[in-house]
Design goal:
Blueprint (H helix, E strand, L loop, with lengths): L1 H24 L16 H19 L4 H16 L3 H21 L6 E5 L5 E5 H25 L9 H9 L6
Antiparallel strand pairs: 1-2
Helix pairs in contact: 1-4, 1-5, 2-3, 2-4, 2-5
Length: 174
């Protein structure tokens, strides 16, 4: 099963790379431009996605959900202030951590019990939560696409189907 998680995470990494490459083609001020949207700027969206992904890998590594949420809150302003190149490097480093974790995992369906901040326990698995991480990233890449269109710029396709097609055609997905 770990193969599917790795493929999904590889897709997530590719799609994030597509967004970063597109943003680097645009005027620098687009990254921090204020817009009326779910997030006030693209830099805020990317910081949110990064911190969420960081939080989940911490949970997968044995940390509590409370620890993860406190870490995210503590690092929020620091991550929002990062430039696009620095944010991209942080995403790539975090991707390496995910891929190492997933490649060593023997049974991603094994129960993962998470204590939510309200005290409730949720039984899930790494497999289900990797699906969540990828879906969460997809959702927020959609936010970025909408924000770019609102600013008068086109985005770039990041669909899973396109990723599979390009992969099948032997295209370099880097």
């Amino acid at each position: 099963m770990a193969q599917l998680e790795l493929q999904l995470y590889d897709y997530n990494e590719w799609a994030n790379g597509q967004i970063f490459n597109r943003l680097k083609e645009l005027p620098k001020d687009v990254y921090r431009q204020e817009v009326q949207s779910v997030f006030s700027s693209i830099s805020h969206v990317l910081a949110h996605v990064y911190l969420s992904d960081l939080g989940w890998i911490e949970v997968f590594s044995g940390k509590s959900m409370n620890y993860s949420l406190k870490l995210q809150k503590q690092l929020k302003e620091e991550k929002v202030s990062k430039g696009i190149e620095e944010m991209e490097a942080m995403f790539l480093k975090l991707s390496e951590r995910y891929k190492l974790f997933l490649s060593k995992m023997e049974n991603s369906d094994k129960p993962l019990v998470i204590e939510n901040p309200n005290g409730d326990l949720m039984e899930t698995s790494v497999f289900e939560q990797v699906l969540h991480v990828v879906n969460h990233g997809t959702y927020h890449r959609g936010n970025i696409t909408a924000m770019l269109r609102q600013m008068g710029y086109a985005s770039i396709p990041t669909d899973y189907g396109l990723y599979l097609y390009l992969k099948q055609m032997g295209n370099n997905l880097e």
